User: Fold this.
Amino acid sequence: MTRRLGISILAALHAAILFAGWLAPYPSDEQHREFPYTAPSFAVRAPQDSGTECRLEWLRDGHLFGTPSPCGIFLLGTDAFGRDVLSRLLYGGRISVLAGLAATLLALALGTAAGTISGFYGGWPDAVLMRGGELLLALPWLYLLLAVRAVLPLHIPTTQAFLLVVAIIGSLGWVRPARLVRSVVMSARERGYVQAARGFGASGAYLIRRHILPETTGVVLTQATLLVPQFILAEVTLSFLGLGISEPVPSWGNMLAEARQYSALVSHTWLLAPGVVLIPLLLGYFVLADGLREVQQD
Assistant:
């Protein structure tokens, strides 16, 4: 029951992020200067002394709901510039989750390649890759991440910043998948059917492609469900510290950065919405990882 609930919540959150353009009532950068730090409300609001009649309209301008200007509806409140927190939360989720997924693909690609080469061929490739990986694991992961990002330019276009964050996170996260893949490969290469294929003259590349890599599928999938939440948190951390995605493009990290000030945190608690959403998202991935482990053990 718990597993089914966790996966359902995970699917719902990803669907909401995927359809952010339809669910969000406003563009992420649209400012409502007459509504700064407006508290969350289900009521449609009108500017003071405007005399405007406000109403909620469904399926307005390609969105699920909206209001005619200058009215506004802010289910999760607004920030200092009057930007709708719900809209920025949905659009920002695209950045943070996509960064986690992309970095996971990169880390798994590097880890699978390194683990396969190390486990299948052994010798000096194994020594170089595994000793280098152990050295990387021995370093403080967060500080290494910050150090690598800090030496690079701060003010770069958003697309380049996104790709840079993905490259940094993914290239530092390949070691654990590589070690697990190496163990599977070392076991698989000694099996009878692999030895028989080798005896018939099969090349190393054929053995890896045809017999070895399919054995690593379960490990890779389980690692994916563990790495995605870690890498989402890594992107949030970098953006929170001003080293990742920068304003005005929203990510959950730079949205949380606005709540760093004590006055904003106490008076405008709705600015913590990205942190609240992160909790069920991360728990959903961990529940999915547990489910995959149980399936493999069965």
Q: What stands out?
A: DSSP finds 13 helices and two strands in the chain.
